[in-house]
Amino acid sequence: MLLIWLGALCIVGGVLLLAIPPIWRGRLSGRQSRSAVIANGTLEPRQPGAGLRLKTSWPGFALIAVGALLMLVGAMI
Questions:
Q1: Which are the contacts of 72, defined by CB distance < 8 A and separation ≥ 6?
Q2: pLDDT at 36 > cutoff 60
Q3: What is the pLDDT of residue 9?
Q4: Contact of 8 with 69, CB cutoff 8 Å
Q5: Where are the alpha helices (DSSP H) in the chain?
Q6: CA torsion, points 44, 45, 47, 50, in degrees to nearest 10?
Q7: Contacts of 60 (CB under 8 A, 6+ apart)
Q8: Which of 5, 7, 36, 61 has the highest CB neighbour number within 10 Å of its CB?
Q9: Separation CA 19–CA 57 (nearest Å)
């Protein structure tokens, strides 16, 4: 049972690890349009950040895979 809970915790942590960076990359002030390329007097980047990339998101995917493996092993025991 402990492995199942640990696996679930790893999956939730992996999803959070994947979801938080794209949320914070968006434009926070001014117009709410994602297509705005000019930052009007702010310190925000001129273009919104890219979405999920395997090169930068692999820790989240790995944590989800480890969590799924832990849940599978916990279910077999």
A1: 7
A2: no
A3: 97
A4: no
A5: 2-25, 54-76
A6: -100
A7: 14, 15, 17, 18
A8: 7
A9: 10
Domain boundaries of the chain, sorted by first residue:
1-23+53-77
| DSSP state, residue 35 | T
Tokens of 28: 């926070």
Q: How confident is the model at residue 35 (pLDDT cuts 50, 70, 90)?
A: low
Q: Are 29 and 44 in contact (CB under 8 A)?
A: yes
Q: List Cβ neighbours of 13 (8 Å cut-off, separation of 6 or more).
A: 63, 67
- Structure token pair of residue 2: 């402990």
pTM (global) more than 0.90:
no
Between CA 38 and CA 40 the distance in angstroms is: 6
